[in-house]
Amino acid sequence: MQIIESCVEKFRLDNENLKFEQFIVAEREGSIIGFGRIKPYRHCFELGCVAVLEAYRKRSIGNAIVKKLIKDFPSDDVWITTDIPEYFQRFGFQSTTDAPQEILDKIKRVCQGRQHPNAIIMLLRRK
Ligand SMILES: CC(C)(COP(=O)(O)OP(=O)(O)OC[C@H]1O[C@@H](n2cnc3c(N)ncnc32)[C@H](O)[C@@H]1OP(=O)(O)O)[C@@H](O)C(=O)NCCC(=O)NCCS
Question: 2-125 has which fold?
Answer without folding.
Answer: Aminopeptidase (3.40.630)
